[in-house]
């Protein structure tokens, strides 16, 4: 299951073997590659030219030109949707200034100390919540300036845990 956003419209997409379903309806189309980054699409007896402009796998975005009109597609996979449901989707949007608790929980372990240099994606602490250990990672490169919590301490959602 995927959530696909195209120019402010959101669609639920499911893929199984050779079939693609959009909002519960099976998509009947014919897609042929015509050149490097160029495709020809026939959908509901209409012909479309499709050009792949860019693909950013980290941000999960695709930029296309459909009949020479620009279009941006944002894709959320099942893991993105689960993180969003748990309230943990804001972790990747934070700057490297601070890390906030994505949900209430207990500080299980702190992996860094003040003055440590961290890189984007480095584990900085473990938050125990809902009977699961959640590893919180650095949202960017930086130096740990202040650790505002202690191991074993209870925290609330959006409480600042570490400042960079």
In words, what does this structure look like?
The protein is mainly beta and 164 residues long. Helix content is 5%, strand content 55%. The protein has one helix and 18 strands. The chain has one helix at residues 78-85, and strands at residues 2-6, 9-16, 19-22, 25-26, 29-35, 38-43, 46-56, 61-66, 69-76, 98-100, 105-110, 117-118, 123-129, 132-137, 142-143, 146-147, 154-155, 160-163. It has a nine-stranded antiparallel β-sheet. The protein has a four-stranded antiparallel β-sheet with strand order 14-13-11-17, with no helix packed on it. A hairpin with a 2-residue loop joins strand 1 (2-6) and strand 2. The longest helix has 8 residues, at 78-85. It is elongated and about 65 Å long. The protein starts with a strand and ends with a strand. The relative contact order is 0.13. The model has no long low-confidence stretch (mean pLDDT 87).
